[in-house]
Design goal:
2 copies of one chain form a homodimer. The first copy, chain A, is α/β, with parallel strands linked by helices. Chain A folds into 3 domains: 44 residues, no CATH class; 132 residues, Rossmann fold (3-Layer(aba) Sandwich); 127 residues, Rossmann fold (3-Layer(aba) Sandwich). Helix content of chain A is 41%, strand content 16%. In chain A, the strands form 2 sheets. Chain A has a 6-stranded parallel β-sheet with strand order 2-1-3-4-5-11, sandwiched between helices. A 6-stranded mixed β-sheet of chain A has the order 7-6-8-9-10-12, with helices on both faces. In chain A, helix 11 links the parallel strand 9 and strand 10. Chain A binds a DNA duplex through helix 2 and helix 4.
Amino acid sequence: MDNPTNKRVTIHDVAAAAGVSISTASKALNNTGRMGAETRERVKRIAGEIGFRPNALARGLLSKRSFTIGLLTNDTYGRFTLPVMAGVSEALVDHGVSVFLCAIEDDPALGQIHVEAMLDKQVDGIIASGKRMDRRLPVDLSSLPVPVVYAFTEGTENSVTLRSDDAQGARLAVEWLVKLGRRRIAHITGPQDFFSVRERASAYREVAGDVEPVRYGIWAESWGHEAVGSIWAQPGEKPDAIFCGNDQIARGVVDALRERGIRIPEDVSVVGFDNWEIVAAHTRPPLTSVDMGLKELGREAGLTVLALAEGRGVEPGVRKLPCRLVVRQSCGGMSPTE
Amino acid sequence: MDNPTNKRVTIHDVAAAAGVSISTASKALNNTGRMGAETRERVKRIAGEIGFRPNALARGLLSKRSFTIGLLTNDTYGRFTLPVMAGVSEALVDHGVSVFLCAIEDDPALGQIHVEAMLDKQVDGIIASGKRMDRRLPVDLSSLPVPVVYAFTEGTENSVTLRSDDAQGARLAVEWLVKLGRRRIAHITGPQDFFSVRERASAYREVAGDVEPVRYGIWAESWGHEAVGSIWAQPGEKPDAIFCGNDQIARGVVDALRERGIRIPEDVSVVGFDNWEIVAAHTRPPLTSVDMGLKELGREAGLTVLALAEGRGVEPGVRKLPCRLVVRQSCGGMSPTE
DNA sequence: TTAAGGAGAGAAAACCTTTTCTCACGCGAT
DNA sequence: ATCGCGTGAGAAAAGGTTTTCTCTCCTTAA
């Protein structure tokens, strides 16, 4: 049913082929208006046969809905926005909505250009996403003529913001360690100026108590390695579990422990954060890790911006999505519900 | 200069405000038609003042150009399409073109849906991208009404395909090792059924000679680790350099060497492939690695599809873009040109 | 038999922009 | 004085849909 010419088939062609007027054709295809059941069926059948697909530009011009949204991110290479994007795309494709990807590094001018390009193209809404929860994108989205949803980046005053519940995730991890019988749980994590770091740390503190100081550092293997070095260099009792601020740190921790002949998980349990498959699953032993559910976050962001675009109300504020614990072999025990 | 009402400002508003007709306004703004210089300036000034931006949908309806292209990928989480995407976006934003990101896992139905959605939205062209050069996307793009460019995935018969020159990249790496005085260079790499693997291996063979067998395995740290184990378990002379099929394998190799007390780069040089920052830069010591220039590839793909969309001819066939060697500390020596 | 009403379908406007065509006017040349 | 022409600017069509309005029949009830 391809059309041999290069010209796209329009509703005019459908109408002509079916021997009806354009308006009747349109109403038939959209299940609107009044007409004989037979006519409606015939139009639909013929439309299918000649491969008619409505021109979204024309439709959008009239309906003020382009079935298009923009995804703005400054996390070009990062592992955070990637699953978020996948989630957004997945949630919206069912609704016929396509996603403009706009990678603005940290360049305000570039951001501005992208936003304007999106508005020119009449996007129905914008999702702003980033690489950390407590930083803004370098572009002001607060007074746009379209709805904006923030996902994994800080939003403005009365905006809708979606984030993972890091405190709950941290609690999940530490409680799991406690349940396994660990009593001396250390926490090696990233820079203290990250909001997530502070949130995870205080949840850790709540559950694990004051037995070990929180160790702040950088988001790198080397820091995990080094921190273990300094803990084991000190005199006194050693931890029987280490809760790490991310998987890379955990990886460094595991390496450092192994170098000392300490067995994982028999002597020390290790838990990571992020559940970054490529690291967590390939560490020896594979890492138990907290998954922030970023894909789910993306899906939620997509549905939310869609709701706003359709005029359905959405309560503004910060919405936290739960994390889950992915159990592998680095801390013993078999399932988080056992 | 915001407009207080929610209504978007159209060229009607500009015309009214400037006291001219719509056609005159349009011609003034597009620098077409004939009119007094003063009129033209006044229209432009007023358009700027009231914040007029032309509606791309309406423009596209008429011009048959939507200034929109689609990027199809099945590498949702992968590290390959990510830089490709960044390159595409970067190249096209200057031309006012926005990019639809379509993540089709490996699902033909999903692919079909996305392609149809893109065509409905009148994309000017499509870039297909994947996670390996010798696999097709699970969707047929061979007879679409818009131009298609393949980047880092296999294209169809008479298509334009962009890929990295893996043979040249491998040669670069091995020649570098030779220049450093290494004579017994091993090659530990991925599965032999990857085209890139075979290509890299034969380039390796050309330069390094027949002194060590190529060791095929899987794309994982564990394989690098294991391969070193088996090499060092064998009797006979040991390699003084190892060229790895990717950075993860290299990472496993480095770990295994260190466990044996072998110094890097003093005793053995190691080179990786992919230059995956997050792995290469954080291995101890940081890995020298071959960079496939994926961002450049993306940029090139963007410009190519744009050229096709504008009717400028592009020679079909496979175009290989050069790799470059990123020198870090894992093989000694300081710069690839020294 | 006629008026009312409903069913089926088409005409036309609207969305916003670009482009082609037409028109009016003034000036220089005949 | 008239013709032609160049200049400045507006009218209208086009692009593909959707939607409202209108029109024509036909049926049914009075």
